[in-house]
Amino acid sequence: MRPETEAELAEMIASASGPICVRGGGTRGVNLNGDVLETGGLSGITLYEPGSLTLVAQAGTALAEIEAALDAEGQRLAFEPMDHRGLMGTSGEPTIGGVVAANVSGPRRVSVGACRDFMLGVRYVDGTGSVVKNGGRVMKNVTGYDLVKLMSGSWGTLGVLTEVSLKVLPKPETAACILITGLSDAEAVRVMAKALGSPFEVSGAAHGPLGPDGQPVTMLRVEGFAGSVAYRAERVAGLFGDMDVRIESDPEAVAGVWARVRDGAPFHGVAGDVWRVSCTPTLSAGLAAKIQADGVLYDWGGGLIWARVREGTDVRARLGTFDGHATLVRGNGQPKFQPEPPEIAALSRGLRQKFDPKGILNAGLMG
């Protein structure tokens, strides 16, 4: 099924009697039982007002199209959405609806927030075939239930997005990256915490096997006007003057470093399951040790652990109880999402029953 209009989509869902697998660009590797419903026919930027920092697009619009339009006006999606294709071995084009549905947020989340924090409004079709609109095209336009936030990260289980409204931000003039080579995981977590706690507006803090000669490297990013970036990069580097520190100031090289972090590049083309563990940053090194991974990449100052393990490994069993959650990004044999406590699971079931009483939208994906 590939509807070309919102009305067609609503009719398809209203008349459906069995499960529906909602798919945007197909880049995140979600394969479920049921009829595939592709949103690519709902495509196009319907409103873009650079002066108001506002963009509205149909859900099936390619992310590349949106980023090109923003770049032409010196703007960007500040939450830095990941491209899953290299990690998942998929093709196709990521869509803005898929980004919103999965709340896809990259390294800059640590400083500016997640995708859902930039959402202004949504239109979607729920599991009964009803068209629902919530939010608007300006900030603080929410009345009643904040369905905009609810739909961001619902993975198509509550409704199929047809249109999204987003706040965008200006692109910085330049960026620099402070690179510290040879730290242990625990040392790197302390370094990242110190940098993020400094007054120098660090917009990215990651650590992993991305350095020269396979050595681990800790990466700290600063962005903004050229003079400010040069000053702040020197000050951040000065915090760690007794370590192996250098500053990368070429914008293209800096962008390449953070694209590799954003997309989980160390795990591209390498066998094994890949997990994302969200946790308290100060505990991340200890949690990573429990995982016994074949490869680890830290982002968000240690608040996010990417871990590659042997196929079929139950990372949740290795971690035990901890303050956070583990998501299986690539692999089979385990639930994709962390099982919820009974009280939260009951609320989630109630929401899905309300939005999708027939239980047909991406059934079984989130419990």
Q: SSE order in H/E notation?
A: HEEEEHEHHHEEHEEEHEEHEHEHEEHEH
> Per DSSP, what share of the residues sits in E-state strands of 2 or more residues?
25-35%
Any idea what the shape is? Answer: globular
CATH structural class of the largest domain: Alpha Beta
CATH fold group of the largest domain: Uridine Diphospho-n-acetylenolpyruvylglucosamine Reductase, domain 3
Count of runs of 4 or more consecutive helical residues: 12
Rg calc:
21 Å
Give start-end ranges of low-pLDDT stretches.
138-142
Largest sheet: 5 strands, antiparallel
Topology, number of strands: 17
First-to-last CA distance: 24 Å
Q: Strand order, biggest sheet?
A: 3-4-8-6-7
Which assembly state applies to the chains in this document?
single chain
Number of domains: 3
Summary of the model, kept short:
The chain is an alpha+beta fold and 367 residues long.
Molecular structure report:
The chain is an alpha+beta fold and 367 residues long. The protein folds into 3 domains: 6-170, Uridine Diphospho-n-acetylenolpyruvylglucosamine Reductase, domain 3 (2-Layer Sandwich); 174-262, ACT domain (Alpha-Beta Plaits), CATH 3.30.70.260; 265-330, 2-Layer Sandwich (Alpha-Beta Plaits), CATH 3.30.70. The protein is built from 12 helices and 17 strands. It has helices at residues 6-15, 63-72, 85-88, 96-101, 109-112, 147-151, 185-196, 226-238, 251-262, 284-291, 315-319, 342-355; strands spanning 20-23, 35-38, 45-49, 54-58, 75-76, 119-125, 131-135, 160-167, 169-170, 174-181, 202-208, 217-224, 244-248, 273-279, 295-299, 304-309, 324-330. It has a 5-stranded antiparallel sheet. A 4-stranded antiparallel sheet has the order 11-12-10-13, with helices on both faces. The longest helix is centred in the last third of the chain and has 14 residues, at 342-355. 44% of the residues are buried.
